[in-house]
Amino acid sequence: MSLLERELREQGAVLAARTTLGWRAAEAAAEVLGADDVDHLVIAARGSSDNAARYAQYLLGLELRLPVALATPWLYGGERPPLLRRAAVLGISQSGRSPDVVAVLTAARAQGRPAIALTGDAGSPLALAADLVVPLLAGTERSVAATKTYLASLHAIAQIVAALRPEPGRDQWFQRLPGLVEATVAAQLESRARFDPLARARLLTVVGRGTELATACETALKLRELSGIAAEAFSPPDLLHGPVAAINRAGAIWLIGTAARGRLARVELGDLARGAGLTVVVSDDPDLVASADIGVAVQPGLPEWLAPFLAVIPGQVAALRLGELAGVDVDRPHGLEKVTLTR
Q1: Sheet holding 251-257, edge to edge
Q2: What pairing do the DSSP bridges indicate for beta strands 251-257 and 132-135?
Q3: CA distance linking residue 293 with residue 284, whole number of Å
């Protein structure tokens, strides 16, 4: 068994462990974000961590009405970084070692603004640049492709939101989440061969909106880095503003729609999928699932903050399967390193 598959299977246990252990740091981060002098959040991240940042962008805007911007780290490497008045800054990085992400937190500290690090290494440069560290608590991730650290990042963000906006019943969902993840991983791995037809696709277009835009971006990243197939992610409006022209019989479209405003309507599904050679649907709507070439059912009735934890798992498993079919070393894909030091 590959390291990647092992770490996929560990995701439920990781969330079970952090459900109790993560609350103290989440509450401390919530106190920072709830301060009177903070009216927006800037997040610096790369790769899968950037997709976790997209989840935070939608979730904090949806539940707390807090504007969240994704940082432009390149701008922070010079002598005149952007001003961060009334901002809090969050850096998300598994390793905590990417210089451009660290530079954003360094600029925040220099400007007297609160800086939070969400990282797996409490002794990393990112952690040392922060006022407060929220630990991933995911253990060592040895496969290059991030899986359990991605879900741990979402979990930490969801806990911060829960600390800022307590809601009846949310604690019970946190208790149920690890078991839901474990069951979903097992089911998807057992049925992984259903993704085999995607190996013929020349282009994979992944679509989601709201909190599921983060899922779409992470799914596309996993598919691309493990299979070598070109994969891109869009929200439905962005796809329809031009990129939809590239969808044809040689490609596949992967549609993600769950929970409230993120759910795709059947007419929207038809508009987006028209012309594609193969359609994948990940949804809690049984009619949409039944209409797809490859349909993946997500449990209905999930809160909007929770659905992305389960909706990303089919993408992780499909990427693993397509990598295996392509003869890729899924633990160390070509051209990739576990720690990428970007500037």
Answers
A1: 230-234, 203-207, 251-257, 278-283, 294-297
A2: unpaired
A3: 16
Find out whether 87 and 40 touch, Cβ atoms under 8 Å.
yes
Model pTM? Answer: 0.95
Residue 159 lies in a domain: yes
Taking only the tens of pLDDT, the chain with its 343 residues reads: 899 999 999 999 999 999 999 999 999 999 999 999 999 999 999 999 999 999 999 999 999 999 999 999 999 988 899 999 999 999 999 999 999 999 999 999 999 999 999 999 999 999 999 999 999 999 988 988 899 999 999 999 999 999 999 989 899 999 999 999 999 999 999 999 999 999 999 999 999 999 999 999 999 999 999 999 999 999 988 988 888 888 889 999 999 998 666 566 655 666 677 788 899 999 998 888 998 999 999 999 999 999 999 999 999 999 999 999 999 888 887 665 545 556 6
Tell me: do 206 and 167 sit in the same domain: no
Residue carrying the six token digits 């995911």: 138
Residue 88 is part of which domain span? 3-174
